[in-house]
TrEMBL record:
This is Enoyl-[acyl-carrier-protein] reductase [NADH]. SUPFAM superfamilies: NAD(P)-binding Rossmann-fold domains. It comes from the Bacteria. Keywords: Oxidoreductase. One of its GO terms (molecular function) is oxidoreductase activity. The lineage of its organism: Bacteria, Pseudomonadati, Bacteroidota, Sphingobacteriia, Sphingobacteriales. It comes from Mucilaginibacter mallensis. Gene3D superfamilies: NAD(P)-binding Rossmann-like Domain. PANTHER family: DIHYDROANTICAPSIN 7-DEHYDROGENASE.
Length: 272
């Protein structure tokens, strides 16, 4: 079979696909014939440009891309998406659920000397942590259950989440996201076991430092980039395309025995 058609008739549901890892995955999977349902939150101006890119991909690779500018964390929006998507995708045709949502709070746990009255008072709250953890971790479980209940998952489906080194070491202002990523890693382990009865394989990718829009929002991101280049044995930081290649590999038949793993995609950056 032509490699570019190896995923013909199959679908990927990508949560957070307007840029970074999510968009790179769309480009890679489209090249191999996979249809895409992508959810994102963008302004109308940004969405116009994004839809032009999607149109070019659908024409080039003869695949379908269904774009939804909705809140993937909202229960009603999720239910509406599933209902609509079920009319356009065959039963058991979702090969991949990719969780690439980057939404959360980047605040310190404490600001010494600050008071509530201070205009700059912006310490991390429990509510911030809860919002970030649901966005970047627990929402994966809700989406998995919704797709499963609608009988859309392929019998050899894949679930992929994205974590980072910041789940295991200190990054300035990253506490809420670190908690969320650590939670995601734990959740994926349990999903790998308990959803295996449905043929689903759940894995998490730990990318190296990658210059994405999300990274640039982290305080001191320039330092992370410089340190990443210095640490990386291959002399550069990770690119979204590097991660997209592994997402593709995890969708192939040959990867069916990979389940419950945290896969480093960083050129060996984690070794130093």
């Amino acid at each position: 079979m032509d490699k570019q058609l190896q995923f013909s008739g199959l679908w990927a549901v990508i949560l957070g696909g307007s840029s970074g890892f999510g968009f790179a995955a769309i480009e890679k999977l489209a090249k191999h014939g996979m249809n895409i349902a992508v959810l994102y939150r963008e302004t109308s101006a940004a969405e116009k440009i994004l839809k032009e890119k999607f149109a070019a991909l659908t024409e080039q690779y003869s695949i379908k891309i269904l774009s939804h500018n909705i809140n993937a964390l909202d229960q009603v929006s999720r239910a509406q998406f599933i209902e609509e998507f079920s009319t356009q995708a065959d039963k058991h045709s979702v090969k991949l659920l990719l969780h690439s949502i980057a939404r959360g709070n980047l605040k310190p746990l404490t600001i010494p000397g600050a008071t509530v009255e201070d205009e700059a008072y912006n310490e991390l709250s429990i509510e911030d942590i809860q919002l970030t953890t649901y966005a970047m971790s627990n929402s994966l479980l809700d989406w998995t259950k919704a797709i499963l209940k609608a009988e859309l998952f392929h019998e050899d489906g894949r679930i992929i989440g994205l974590t980072s080194e910041g789940a295991h070491k200190y990054w300035e202002g990253y506490a809420a996201v670190s908690i969320a990523k650590a939670s995601l890693e734990s959740l994926a382990k349990y999903m790998a076991v308990e959803f295996s009865v449905y043929g689903l394989k759940t894995n998490v990718i730990q990318a190296g430092v990658t210059e994405t829009a999300s990274l640039k929002k982290i305080p001191g991101s320039e330092k992370l980039i410089k340190a990443g280049i210095k640490r990386n044995p291959l002399g550069r930081i990770t690119k979204p395309e590097d991660v997209a290649g592994v997402i593709y590999l995890l969708c192939t038949d040959e990867s069916f025995w990979i389940n419950g793993s945290i896969i480093h995609v960083d050129g060996g950056e984690h070794c130093r």
